[in-house]
Design a protein that fits this description.
Chemotaxis protein chec, seven-stranded antiparallel beta sheet, 7 strands, 31% strand
């Protein structure tokens, strides 16, 4: 999986700590329930990587306040914020990956997967856990077989 997780770590830190000024730390494991989930795909010449970003509503509310100056966002706005967060985090990881490894990658549009009261039950090749402020975040990474 090359150094994909290192690029994600850096991209999460760039987004939360450096862009939004929200304290952020990596965790070894965290229960993440009542989550909104989106999926975004990166493709290179021989692999596809699906990244699933999972956040809870309180963090999306904070993002709404910081990015949109809106205190009571509607459901569609929360979903848009989740998708845009995935775009910014995974897009930044893509740029870091391309610069470090000379790879040419393509980034798909985020696709909202839904709201889950229990943890998003999917088998991943890798799960990464973070805490932004007091709110947990999970990123699941699924690597598919060789692209033809």
């Amino acid at each position: 999986m090359t150094n994909t997780t290192g690029y994600i770590d850096t991209a999460v830190e760039n987004f939360f700590l450096h862009t939004l000024e929200i304290a952020c730390q990596a965790l070894s494991q965290e229960a993440v329930e009542n989550i909104y989930t989106t999926q975004i795909k990166i493709t290179n010449l021989d692999r596809e990587y699906d990244f699933f970003l999972c956040m809870r509503e309180p963090l999306l509310q904070i993002l709404s306040q910081k990015l949109l100056l809106e205190d009571n966002p509607c459901q569609d706005t929360l979903i848009d914020l989740l998708n845009e967060s995935a775009n910014l985090i995974v897009g930044n990881a893509k740029v870091l990956w391309e610069e470090a490894e000379g790879a040419e990658l393509s980034l798909a549009t985020p696709e909202y997967q839904g709201y889950f009261e229990k943890s998003f039950s999917k088998e991943f090749d890798k799960k990464m856990f973070f805490k932004a402020g007091d709110e947990p975040i999970m990123i699941g990474i699924e690597m598919s077989a060789t692209v033809s």
